[in-house]
């Protein structure tokens, strides 16, 4: 290459990403770490010179004044004219304005798949915890308020109905994990066809039917314009009073105030929440004070194994991008012709629609 690719990142999920990129088996990439505590001018200078940006997460930028400007919104896209590709760390990509990127000829990628096991196991953990009242019993035992232990009577997963909203990598793995419990599985996913649903042993239904019939409503879809506010007061009112709402998706897929009302009023039995509208959630968030809530601070995908797998996938995808291949997790394929033109003008050769193999990829 006549021009050396420049990749800017805020942090890796595991140092192995840097190790892979340092080897340079596919191409020589200049890797620059973004310091969000530095003066804005320095941060902008790094981004404006970048060809690729491994986008910071909302949690990464939460502690900085004006931190949201470092997400890949329309303002950043408009300012960073050299950008050819932006990638999110995990499956979620709500930190990227996909439409703005497509208009600018920028490829958008995520890292769906590598963290699916961790998140699916976490979702199953929520189900077991809520049904068996494990956290509630633990709190009562530690506080000395146990009383009659029969008051902590729970329920079993065996034979219950599981409703999955979004049957991607996470939702699909959750269905597999729940197979030993003999659960009936309902799925709402506008992008899934009946043939595929039947092959996976699930029943494709409307959102209304799913919330009415399910004992566990699991949200595993990404946050998009289509899914923002998908679960609101109407959906919570339609759920069984014995049902549990569980989300490992993104906070704004559900209406947080409506969920609070449903939990306080007894409209639903409980909730397992890994994601909030504001992250990290404030300590006085009323959801955190409810006995029928089990909450975690967006840690469903935070395992040692997932961190490494995501880092490997991240690094090898960047090798593919700058090596001239089509990224394996391209979210806006319509950008490809314009992207190829911009890539060729920058590096002097045209990308191929064939994914480049990288040593150590999987």
From TrEMBL:
Record keywords, A-Z: Amino-acid biosynthesis, NAD, Oxidoreductase
Domain of life: Bacteria
GO terms of biological process kind: amino acid biosynthetic process
Record keyword 4Fe-4S present: no
Record PROSITE patterns: D_2_HYDROXYACID_DH_1
Keyword Oxidoreductase found: yes
Domain D-isomer specific 2-hydroxyacid dehydrogenase NAD-binding: 124-300
InterPro entries: D-2-hydroxyacid_DH (IPR050857), D-isomer_2_OHA_DH_cat_dom (IPR006139), D-isomer_DH_CS1 (IPR029752), D-isomer_DH_NAD-bd (IPR006140), NAD(P)-bd_dom_sf (IPR036291)
MF terms in GO: NAD binding; oxidoreductase activity, acting on the CH-OH group of donors, NAD or NADP as acceptor
Domain D-isomer specific 2-hydroxyacid dehydrogenase catalytic as annotated: residue spans: 42-332
UniProt similarity note: Belongs to the D-isomer specific 2-hydroxyacid dehydrogenase family.
Protein name: Hydroxyacid dehydrogenase
